[in-house]
Amino acid sequence: MTVIAGIGFSAPWLLLALLALPVLWIILRAVPPAPIRRRFPGVALLLGLSDEDTVTDRTPWWLLLLRVLAVAAVIVGLAGPVLNPQRDAGGRGPLLILLDGTWAGATRWSEKQDLVAAQLAEAGRANRPVAVLRLTDPEAPSFQAADAWRSRIAGLTPAPYAPTQRQIDTMLTALDEAGTFDTHWISDGLDYDGRARVTEALQARGDLRVYQTGSAVMGLAPPVFDDGAIVLTARRSVAGPSRDVVILAQGRDPAGTARVLSTATATFEDGALEAETALSLPAELRARITRFEIQAQQSAGATTLTDDSLRRREVALISGREDREGLQLLSPLHYLHQALLPSAELLEGALLDLLPANPDVVVLADIATLSQAESEALAAWVEDGGMLLRFAGPRLAASDVSREDEDPLMPVRLRAGGRSVGGAMSWGEPKGLAPFAAESPFFGLSIPEDVTVNAQVMAQPDPTLADRVIASLADGTPLVTRKELGQGQVVLFHVTANAEWSTLPLSGLFVEMLERLAVSTATQAPSAMDLEGTTWEPVQVMDGYGALSEAGTRPGVDGPDLAEAPLGPELLPGIYESGDRRLARNVLTAETELMPATWPADVPVEGLGLGAERPLGGLLLTLALGLLAADILASLALSGRLRGQRAAAAALAMLALGLSLSMAHQGQAQVVADEDAALRATEELVLAHVITGDPQVDELAHAGLRGLGDTLRYRTSVEPGDPAGVNLETDELAFYPMLYWPVTADQPIPSAEAYARLNAYLRSGGLIVFDTRDADVAGFGASSPNGRRLQRLAAPLDIPPLEPIPHDHVLTRTFYLLQDFPGRYANRDVWVESAPPDAEQVEGMPFRNLNDGVTPVIIGGNDWAGAWAVDQSGRPVLPVGRGFAGERQRELANRFGVNLVMHVLTGNYKSDQVHVPALLDRLGQ
Amino acid sequence: MIPARDLRQRSETEASALPPLLARAEQLAGTVLLGDHGRRRAGMGDDFWQYRPAQVGDSRRMIDHRRSARGDQQYVREREWQIAQSVMMWVDQGASMRFTSAPGGKAALPEKIDRARLLGLATAVLLIRGGERVGLTGTTLPPRRGNMQVMRLAEFFTRDDAADYAPPEHRAMIPHARALFLSDFLGDMAEVRLALTKAADRGVRGVLMQVLDPSEEMFPFHGRTIFESVGGSIRHETLKAGDLRDRYKDRLAERKDELSRLCRATGWRFGTHHTGDSAQSALLWLYRALDGGTS
């Protein structure tokens, strides 16, 4: 493909035809526009007049230009121009397409896939074997035909980490064995360790060409809670012009639906790499946030997960009665205040007032006895998952709490009095702390030298004591004990919460111990040291796009690794859990800087935005057609055949042509038909029957409803219009108060959508009269084909329990007083919605106070439509019975129809006891 | 085809064209009769005009004894239209008259020939009602009176002439009669001049009416055009019709000038009518022009 000025031509020789354009210009110039013939009697006067201006027989220059342009467009169009032609990078032999495959490329991953596809296509054309590799998934390159790789493009996904050293080593080893090849390296634009080594190795193997997007990679550092606000820091790899990014705080709303809870806008200043914004949210909302992400960035780096550091625990601090005012440093709660204030919400007050607020932790500092109500409430709260943290003190030591029997709210039994060591009145030195045992939650914390204990309460040796000790003094006496209670736990520090008995509250260890106990939460990402000795289990892990998935059976991770180790296939970003604590490992840490990748000067770097090949031939030919169309108009105008209205008409015609090509008109007729049907159905009361597909049955149903309509019109104030046939699949049912549904044995079962609408119709007060027309529903249909079909038809319908129509059903008296409901067949049962079980007949009343509303279905088999049916002139269509008795039966059928429609229209009006006297009167009782 | 049948078919076709033309002509003439002319003549009768006292020089035979016997004065009974005038018409039936410029055809704007025939026939109706004798120039239809003559005129008016520009028929003109020539006068002026001088020689005076299509007056053409006469005998090609407009208009004005000069010289009257205008005003003008000639 020849490339001229960025546009490739598949048939460049055709462009030589452009040379003929000047000739064409001269030819066209010489040909005047065709004359128009006109009849004109006045021609006699024109004879002998000659044209003054002899130049006008030439075509005007602009028309010439138009035509020449059209021809030029045709020539260029036929020459097969292609915009963004995939240039042949040349080269022979194997080609390695190497992707970084890190999270940094996830946002524009599809472009990279397109690029790989384009490279594959080109290599396929050049018949080069190809291997596609990701640095984040190193393997030995296997050079295959390009087609073999094409189907695997979709399987290339970005990893949520940068290539680790181990991966790069693996890759280098694999490359060493692969012979010579050219490389196209599709870089994500972010630097990482070892990239230079790979570059060197690849350059040694053959040509290296790098494709890299010019736009900056964005990342989001973990949120920091500072001064009541969440501070979010967005970073970018390349300093550029000022830019706003929107950071979304996502989480679950109270209904449990994931949604954006809040947004914040961070602004990169011109030339700045970092943008900071603060998000101030109420604690409730803050606790629900699960992740922050940069809008319109789809990468793991632009997503940061939240963990306990944003979940501020509520800690209720309760101390004993203050003896003296103003001695702050002696207050049992002072050091707890200091330790917890940065990381927890502190509640203070009376215990019973605080418990309903459901704090996460209740701290009792040197409180010995609790009232009955308090201890019960506290025990219930602990068993529900609360954590009770107790500190010893003079009162506890002096009390009898948990002396003989273990108090439920104490982890151990205590010996009377406690002990004091290293004091003025005692022997020995103050005791230091023993190293924490491996099973202790404090395992891994380093113990400062200067932590000493002067006094403590002593635990009674018990069989369970060893299990409950989680920290002890150097001499083995328990310092901190813990026991599970229900879902919660009770922890006792055997020293005071102030510095009276020990220096523990003065040390950093105290804070760390509280963190480990999940009393407080770290305000900063924990360091490796903080996590020493812990094992963390992945709960959810993030992929390169920033999407979370369940961790499944991934192995646990050591605490220091979680904090410090670089991310890799063994350590994916995500949520990790240990005990009660949750930690989020994010791609970016607070310190991570996004360094743009830089390349040696001899490596050619191309932009990623190689547009797709775009053939321009069609466009140019269309342009030529348009120009020729314009030429038609212009020529007409020039030769005087296009004036005024005709010009407008011609222009309009061309416009209309264009519009009609682009516009699709559809569905107009359908809408009109629907509206007509709706108008017909709503202008008057319309009785409707379901179209069964059997024309005979449908006609009879129609005639039956017409007959019923006539009867209603003669006898009542209900004046229905022409009955309507309803197609359950397409027609709107809501317009019809009642559907008559004749059941045939071979009726098609309506679709699920039709049933959905039928159910909606029934629920909104519609009534369906099922008529099996075979006088056989008493045994409930199992015996007749129509009955079986009815069962199948009605199965998906939302129908309440049914019963044979009771003698006091409101249908028996809505207009006529009836006890039989014959159609063409008589004396068979009719089924309606059953009466509520609590309906009782009041003494002296003939009727029970039955269900409200209209029964949603009436099921019978008396072929009522057959009895109602009349032809156009009002004569009955079908015979009913014989002689006078038959006519009587038809009359009763009509009366049933009247009652039915009245029931549909008036509901349970006649069920009202107000009518009882009149009804009794009519009944002659 | 059997000649008789063919004849009959043709005649019926022709006859079917007659009644509309006649009817329209009668209708048009009726509007004039309802005007001031009609009132002037109402109740006067065709013959009697007035009694006037006998004067010296009046023949005794002219004295009306019935009136004179009522008194001492002798009266002469004067009659109007004592000698019916002969009015000879020539309506150009040439192909050039069968032209209308309207794109919608005859419905939008009548052909010139249609308008000329209408005006001619309407004038004839009026004149015949006035008791004149009306006929065509030439020998085909000598002037006669009576309604049958209107029918005959109408019949003659349905005959088209194949010639592109028909020369005025000037044969067999009755001396001292009146004449009415309706044409577009776009053809050879020599013929017109000949006819008029011949008429003037015989003491025939009359009216020339030039019936023109609006397009012939305006010349609204542009671009490269080949103009053809209706019969196709003459054609003229131009590359820029718009440029010819002014010169065409000059020529037309020149033609009109010449016609009116000719008319002045021969005692005729000259008028121009455009098919775009109302036929009634043209008829009024025609009638007055003819009337003016008689009184």
Structure notes:
The complex is a heterodimer of chains A (925) and B (295). Chain A is α/β, with parallel strands linked by helices and 925 residues long. In chain A, 29% of the residues lie in helices and 20% in strands. Chain A is built from 24 helices and 39 strands. In chain A, the strands form 9 sheets. Chain A has a 7-stranded mixed sheet, sandwiched between helices. In chain A, strands 6-5-7-8-31 form a 5-stranded parallel sheet. In chain A, strands 26, 27, 28, 29 and 30 form a 5-stranded antiparallel sheet that branches. In chain A, β1 (2-4) and β2 (7-9) form a beta hairpin. In chain A, α6 runs parallel beside α7 (195-205). The termini of chain A are far apart. Chain B has 2 domains: 3-37 and 82-294, Rossmann fold (3-Layer(aba) Sandwich), CATH 3.40.50; 48-79, no CATH class. Chain B is 44% helix and 17% strand. In chain B, α1 packs across α9 (279-294), α4 (112-129) crosses α9 and α6 packs parallel to α8. Chain B is elongated, with a radius of gyration of 23 Å. Chain B starts with a helix and ends with a helix. At the A-B interface, β3 and α2 of A face β7, β8 and α8 of B. Chain A: Pfam families: BatA, DUF4159.
Report the largest inter-chain contact. Answer: A-B, 27 and 38 residues
> Might you state the CATH topology name of the largest domain in chain B?
Rossmann fold
Number of strands of chain B: 9
Estimate nothing, just give the exact number of structural domains of chain A. 5
- Strand order within the widest beta sheet of chain A: 18-17-19-20-25-24-23
**Which architecture of the largest domain in chain A per CATH?**
3-Layer(aba) Sandwich
Radius of gyration of chain A: 45 Å
- The SSE string of chain B, one letter per element, is HHEHEEHEHEHEHEEHEH
- Summed over residues and divided by their number, the pLDDT of chain B gives a mean of 79
CATH superfamily of the largest domain in chain A: Domain of unknown function DUF4159
Beta-strand percentage range of chain B? 15-25%
- What gap, in angstroms, lies between the N and C termini of chain B? 54 Å
What portion of the residues of chain A fall into strands of 2 or more residues? Answer: 15-25%
CATH class of the largest domain in chain B: Alpha Beta
Radius of gyration of chain B, taken over Cα atoms and rounded to an integer in Å = 23 Å
Structural class of chain A: alpha/beta
Structural class of chain B: alpha/beta
- Work out the count of structural domains of chain B: 2
Q: Helix fraction of chain B?
A: 40-55%
User: So, CATH architecture of the largest domain in chain B?
Assistant: 3-Layer(aba) Sandwich
